[in-house]
Specification:
The complex is a heterodimer. Chain A is of the alpha/beta class. Chain A has a domain of 109 residues: DsrEFH-like (Hypothetical Protein Ychn, Chain: A), CATH 3.40.1260.10. Chain A has 5 helices and 7 strands, in the order E-H-E-E-E-H-H-E-H-E-H-E. In chain A, helix 1 runs parallel beside helix 3. Chain A is globular and about 55 Å long. A 4-stranded mixed beta sheet of chain B has the order 1-2-4-3, with helices on one face. The chains are: A alpha/beta, B alpha+beta. At the A-B interface, helix 1 of A face helix 1 and helix 2 of B.
Chain lengths: 164, 75
């Protein structure tokens, strides 16, 4: 962190790895970097999977009670329980990907590449790597390994700290 | 006429800002960039972007459904 100058800074804890939840951290990180902030992202638990070389994210209706998809000119609710029906989450994922393309929304791959290009610092949670049996070989180039203390030290120097 | 034109019509948040930032970087100090966008959120976003980065938002217009912004690189 560059606290000697007037550079503002932001840190984000990224805990979720589904297609929908991958967006907020990457949108905010890339935009903050574009606005001149020093940005650090700490990837932990399911968020860690967003650093995998090959992303295969999906969305689920489960635990997503406010989820509604534009369909047939209206918004169709996605009841929690339909998630148990085989194919529903796959269909919801396909629908989401289709909307993303149609509405000119960036792909997570593009946002992630932009984040790396704009020097967003990425920390992969060492404990989660052990827990889910990942190695740095599974991950894109760029992230460094670290733990809670690494994050906290960084966060004490940041103007904005977000948990997503 | 601006020195550089950037067409981000059809692109959604945060792509207009990200592309504009990239284009500004290649511009000489004092140079101008015109951005064409269709994302209505871009109006407030470019104001905030310019305030925070210290670049000058020379103009912000809407014609039909297209928004145009002229940004002068001053930072």
């Amino acid at each position: 962190m560059n606290k000697d100058s007037n550079t503002k800074s932001m840190s984000l804890i990224v805990t979720k790895g589904s297609l929908d939840w991958a967006y907020p951290p990457f949108i905010l990180a890339t935009t903050a970097a574009a606005m001149g902030l020093d940005v650090t992202m700490f990837f932990t638990f399911y968020g860690l999977t967003l650093l995998k070389k090959k992303l295969d994210m999906s969305v689920t209706t489960l635990g997503n009670p406010a989820m509604a998809m534009p369909m047939f000119g209206m918004h169709m609710g996605m009841p929690n329980l339909v998630s148990v029906i085989p194919g529903v989450d796959a269909a919801a994922t396909a629908m989401m990907k289709n909307l993303i393309k149609k509405k000119g929304v960036a792909s997570i791959e593009e946002l992630r590449a932009t984040a790396l290009e704009s020097d967003v610092k990425m920390i992969a949670c060492q404990m989660t790597m052990d827990l889910f049996e990942y190695t740095l070989d599974d991950m894109i180039e760029g992230p460094v390994l670290g733990g809670a203390a690494t994050y906290i030290e960084n966060a004490t120097k940041c103007d904005i700290n977000l948990f997503i | 006429m601006a020195d550089q034109l950037l067409d981000v019509k059809g692109l959604n948040c945060p792509l207009p800002i990200l592309r504009a930032k990239k284009a500004l970087k290649d511009l000489a100090m004092g140079g101008t960039l015109e951005v064409l966008a269709t994302d209505p959120g871009a109006v407030k976003d470019f104001e905030a972007f310019c305030r925070t980065t210290g670049n000058e938002l020379v103009s912000s217009n809407e014609e039909g459904k297209v928004f145009s912004f002229v940004i002068k690189r001053t930072a």
